[in-house]
Structures are given as C-alpha cells and as structure tokens.
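Quick note —
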Amino acid sequence: MELTVGAVLEGKIKSITNFGAFVSLPENKTGMVHISEVANAYVSDIRQHLTEGQEVKVMVIGTDNGKINLSIKRLEPKPQREAGSGNRPNFRSNNGGGYNRGNREGGSFQPREQGQNQNAQRPQRAPVQPAAPKTADQLFEEKLKAFMTESDSKLSGIRQYADQRGGRRRR
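Predicted structure written out below.
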C-alpha cells in the first residue's frame, strides 16, 4: 500500500516523546504526529491528549525520505470564533445611529434618522473570504522544513566531498 498525502488511516500510539507521538500504521509502517498536529489548541504536554496503546485516526500530511508525517488535528473540525472576539473592536452598530454621508451640503454631516439604511442604493456583494493567515505553528513548521532541507543538502555535499577524498583523514 502506497501512502499518499491526504490519506486517512487508523493506527495505534506506539510511543510518546516530548515532541510528538509515533503511530503504528498498517503493513508494519510507523509515522509520527508532531505535537503541533495533535489538537487545534496549543498543546504543552502531549501526554494530556494521547496515551500509549490508544487507537487514533490520522491523516498523512507528508512523506519525506521514508518518514511519514501524520496529523490528528486536521481531521477535527476547526473551532469557530465567537462574533466580535477578534483583535479589532466592532464599531459598527445596527441601531441606525451615526451620520448620513449622503447629504454634505455646506460641508456638514447630517445625523442619520433611526432605521435609515445607508446601503439601500448600493448593490449587495457576496462577502469575500480572505485567505486564512498562517498560524505561528504553521510558520515555524515551514521554517523548520526549509532549514532541514538546506541542512540535508549541505551534509550530502560534505559527504560526497569526503568520499572523493578517500574517507576520513588519517594521522
């Protein structure tokens, strides 16, 4: 069975470390769930979420050099934000208060009357969903992956150079 990114599998927690959990997969394969891929919330101690021997459903999120990267949180529904819980305050009010920008004669604004809808003459557009900003964990994972790729490349170059020179130096 060839593991592909996006495949959903069932496995059993084999062992737990401070940085993640190793999961036994079908066909005697083993994958790892990094601590950042365990839950949608911040996880400081993975042992509060997982135990050895626990059956888990995981998604394959990558296969690099024979290593199988797994995620549990990507199979969970994303938590919904509460209305108005963002970082910016909500200054809009639906009570009809404020000022009417439509009448600017003499350079002054006229108070809007209760219930007056300033958007009545504008066509309604479907709201555009901006791309979700990357979380700190996602940014860290990208930087870590870039570092590891660069490091592996440099190490393989050093090894090739050492092999060309005949291995280790003799004294």
